[in-house]
Amino acid sequence: MNKLMALHQRLACCDAVLSDWGVSLASVAFRWFVGWQFLKSGMVKVSDWGATLDLFRYEYMTPVLPPELAAYMGATGELVLPVLLFVGLVTRPAALALCAVNAMAVLSYPQLFQFDCPAAVNDHFYWGALLLAVVAMGPGRLSLDAWLARRAR
Protein backbone atom coordinates (compact mmCIF):
# COMPACT_ATOMS: atom_id res chain seq x y z
CA MET A 1 0.00 0.00 0.00
CA ASN A 2 2.87 2.37 0.80
CA LYS A 3 4.41 1.73 -2.61
CA LEU A 4 1.10 2.55 -4.25
CA MET A 5 0.82 5.82 -2.30
CA ALA A 6 4.43 6.74 -3.17
CA LEU A 7 3.74 6.07 -6.85
CA HIS A 8 0.59 8.20 -6.66
CA GLN A 9 2.52 11.09 -5.10
CA ARG A 10 5.23 10.90 -7.77
CA LEU A 11 2.62 10.89 -10.52
CA ALA A 12 0.77 13.80 -8.91
CA CYS A 13 4.02 15.76 -8.83
CA CYS A 14 4.65 14.98 -12.50
CA ASP A 15 1.07 15.91 -13.33
CA ALA A 16 1.56 19.32 -11.73
CA VAL A 17 4.75 19.90 -13.71
CA LEU A 18 3.09 18.79 -16.97
CA SER A 19 0.08 20.96 -16.23
CA ASP A 20 2.34 23.94 -15.50
CA TRP A 21 4.23 23.42 -18.76
CA GLY A 22 0.96 22.94 -20.65
CA VAL A 23 -0.33 26.29 -19.40
CA SER A 24 3.03 27.87 -20.23
CA LEU A 25 2.97 26.55 -23.80
CA ALA A 26 -0.66 27.61 -24.27
CA SER A 27 0.17 31.07 -22.97
CA VAL A 28 3.08 31.40 -25.41
CA ALA A 29 0.89 30.27 -28.30
CA PHE A 30 -1.90 32.69 -27.39
CA ARG A 31 0.51 35.58 -26.80
CA TRP A 32 2.28 35.08 -30.12
CA PHE A 33 -0.85 34.43 -32.18
CA VAL A 34 -2.79 37.46 -30.96
CA GLY A 35 0.27 39.66 -30.75
CA TRP A 36 1.10 38.93 -34.38
CA GLN A 37 -2.42 39.96 -35.49
CA PHE A 38 -2.11 43.35 -33.82
CA LEU A 39 1.52 43.92 -34.80
CA LYS A 40 0.60 43.41 -38.47
CA SER A 41 -2.22 45.93 -38.12
CA GLY A 42 0.08 48.47 -36.48
CA MET A 43 2.68 48.04 -39.22
CA VAL A 44 0.01 48.68 -41.87
CA LYS A 45 -1.03 51.83 -40.01
CA VAL A 46 2.46 53.32 -39.92
CA SER A 47 3.29 52.26 -43.49
CA ASP A 48 0.78 54.84 -44.80
CA TRP A 49 0.20 57.34 -42.03
CA GLY A 50 -1.83 59.70 -44.21
CA ALA A 51 -4.33 56.97 -45.02
CA THR A 52 -4.44 55.98 -41.34
CA LEU A 53 -5.26 59.54 -40.30
CA ASP A 54 -7.98 59.70 -42.96
CA LEU A 55 -9.48 56.43 -41.69
CA PHE A 56 -9.58 57.79 -38.16
CA ARG A 57 -11.02 61.12 -39.34
CA TYR A 58 -13.73 59.85 -41.68
CA GLU A 59 -14.33 56.12 -41.19
CA TYR A 60 -13.75 55.20 -37.56
CA MET A 61 -16.03 56.74 -34.98
CA THR A 62 -13.70 57.06 -32.01
CA PRO A 63 -15.65 58.21 -28.98
CA VAL A 64 -14.25 61.04 -26.84
CA LEU A 65 -10.76 61.24 -28.42
CA PRO A 66 -9.86 63.44 -31.39
CA PRO A 67 -9.14 61.28 -34.46
CA GLU A 68 -5.42 62.18 -34.60
CA LEU A 69 -4.84 61.24 -30.95
CA ALA A 70 -6.84 58.03 -31.40
CA ALA A 71 -4.71 57.14 -34.44
CA TYR A 72 -1.46 57.68 -32.53
CA MET A 73 -2.71 55.75 -29.50
CA GLY A 74 -4.07 52.89 -31.62
CA ALA A 75 -0.91 52.52 -33.67
CA THR A 76 1.31 52.76 -30.59
CA GLY A 77 -0.76 50.13 -28.80
CA GLU A 78 -0.68 47.82 -31.81
CA LEU A 79 3.11 48.14 -32.11
CA VAL A 80 4.28 48.17 -28.48
CA LEU A 81 1.86 45.83 -26.69
CA PRO A 82 2.45 42.82 -28.99
CA VAL A 83 6.20 43.09 -28.40
CA LEU A 84 5.56 42.97 -24.64
CA LEU A 85 3.40 39.89 -25.19
CA PHE A 86 6.02 38.21 -27.38
CA VAL A 87 8.70 38.45 -24.71
CA GLY A 88 6.28 38.01 -21.79
CA LEU A 89 7.10 41.28 -20.03
CA VAL A 90 4.32 42.82 -17.91
CA THR A 91 2.21 40.23 -19.65
CA ARG A 92 -1.09 40.59 -17.83
CA PRO A 93 -1.24 44.42 -18.08
CA ALA A 94 -0.14 44.24 -21.73
CA ALA A 95 -2.85 41.68 -22.52
CA LEU A 96 -5.47 43.80 -20.76
CA ALA A 97 -4.34 46.92 -22.60
CA LEU A 98 -4.44 45.08 -25.94
CA CYS A 99 -7.90 43.85 -25.01
CA ALA A 100 -8.89 47.52 -24.59
CA VAL A 101 -7.37 48.35 -28.00
CA ASN A 102 -9.35 45.46 -29.46
CA ALA A 103 -12.59 46.62 -27.82
CA MET A 104 -12.02 50.17 -29.03
CA ALA A 105 -11.49 48.87 -32.58
CA VAL A 106 -14.84 47.08 -32.47
CA LEU A 107 -16.68 50.02 -30.89
CA SER A 108 -15.22 52.64 -33.21
CA TYR A 109 -15.95 50.73 -36.40
CA PRO A 110 -19.62 49.67 -36.21
CA GLN A 111 -19.55 48.62 -39.88
CA LEU A 112 -17.91 45.39 -38.66
CA PHE A 113 -21.38 44.22 -37.63
CA GLN A 114 -22.85 44.98 -41.05
CA PHE A 115 -20.49 42.90 -43.19
CA ASP A 116 -21.92 39.78 -44.79
CA CYS A 117 -18.91 37.87 -43.53
CA PRO A 118 -19.19 37.45 -39.75
CA ALA A 119 -15.48 36.62 -39.57
CA ALA A 120 -14.72 40.35 -39.50
CA VAL A 121 -16.19 40.85 -36.05
CA ASN A 122 -15.73 37.26 -34.87
CA ASP A 123 -11.96 37.61 -35.16
CA HIS A 124 -12.05 40.47 -32.68
CA PHE A 125 -14.13 38.44 -30.24
CA TYR A 126 -11.76 35.48 -30.64
CA TRP A 127 -8.70 37.67 -30.04
CA GLY A 128 -10.38 39.22 -27.00
CA ALA A 129 -11.10 35.78 -25.56
CA LEU A 130 -7.50 34.67 -26.08
CA LEU A 131 -6.21 37.87 -24.45
CA LEU A 132 -8.48 37.30 -21.46
CA ALA A 133 -7.18 33.73 -21.26
CA VAL A 134 -3.63 35.12 -21.09
CA VAL A 135 -4.73 37.47 -18.30
CA ALA A 136 -6.24 34.51 -16.42
CA MET A 137 -3.36 32.06 -17.02
CA GLY A 138 -0.52 34.52 -16.73
CA PRO A 139 2.66 34.52 -18.78
CA GLY A 140 3.81 31.03 -17.87
CA ARG A 141 7.38 29.78 -17.48
CA LEU A 142 8.46 30.93 -20.94
CA SER A 143 8.42 34.66 -20.31
CA LEU A 144 10.59 37.47 -19.05
CA ASP A 145 8.12 37.89 -16.20
CA ALA A 146 8.88 34.36 -14.96
CA TRP A 147 12.62 34.80 -15.51
CA LEU A 148 12.63 38.05 -13.53
CA ALA A 149 10.60 36.44 -10.75
CA ARG A 150 13.03 33.51 -10.52
CA ARG A 151 15.95 35.88 -10.50
CA ALA A 152 14.41 38.01 -7.74
CA ARG A 153 14.18 34.97 -5.45
Q: Can you offer a commentary on this structure?
A:
- The protein is mostly helical.
- It has helices at 2-47, 49-59, 67-87, 91-108, 119-137, 144-152.
- It has one domain.
- Helix content is 81%, strand content 0%.
- Helix 1 (2-47) packs across helix 5, helix 2 packs across helix 3 and helix 4 packs antiparallel against helix 5 (119-137).
- The model has no long low-confidence stretch (mean pLDDT 88).
- Belongs to the DoxX family.
- It is found in: Cell membrane.
- Keywords: Cell membrane, Membrane, Transmembrane, Transmembrane helix.
Count of β-strands: 0
Number of self-contained structural domains: 1
Give the class from helix and strand content and strand pairing: mainly alpha
Give the strand content: under 5%
Mean pLDDT: 88
Q: Which overall shape is indicated by the principal axes computed on the Cα atoms?
A: elongated
Q: Secondary-structure element order, as H and E?
A: HHHHHH
State the end-to-end CA separation.
38 Å
Q: In angstroms, what is the radius of gyration?
A: 20 Å
Report the sheet with the most strands, covering strand number, pairing sense and barrel closure.
none
> Helicity level, as a percent range?
over 70%
Number of H/I helices: 6
Instruction: List segments where confidence is low: pLDDT < 50 over at least 5 consecutive residues.
Output: none
